[in-house]
Amino acid sequence: MEQKRIFQRRKVCRFCAEKKDTIDYKDIQVLRNFVTDRGKIVPSRISGNCARHQRVLSSAVKKSRNIALLPFTEER
Fold first, then answer.
1. CA distances from 31 to 4, 42, 63 (A)
2. pLDDT above 90 for 52
3. pTM of the prediction?
């Protein structure tokens, strides 16, 4: 019996592709793409971010939550 091979396309880090070194915590439009509707930060295996940018992204999300630009959780 022959097995089917499933090839998944490698996800590319969005910030590396755009050659961005900094992720601004005040840029809510960008940060909302990496936060779920429940308020959780999307992991890098799903978002495709590299480890360096994922660390910077998570700290930017946490900063923007602390100064109330992003909510910690959404109300039901």
1. 37, 10, 11
2. yes
3. 0.81
For 53, residues 6+ apart whose C-beta sits below 8 A from its C-beta are 13, 14, 15, 16, 23
Domain 14-66: CATH class, spelled out? few secondary structures
44: Cβ contacts below 8 Å, ≥ 6 apart = 50, 51, 54
CA pair distance 46, 43, nearest whole angstrom: 6
pLDDT top residue among 10 and 25 = 25
pLDDT, tens digit (0-9, with 9 covering 90-100), for 17-41: 989 888 999 999 999 999 999 999 9
Q: Please give the distance of CA 38 from its chain centroid, rounded to a whole number.
A: 14
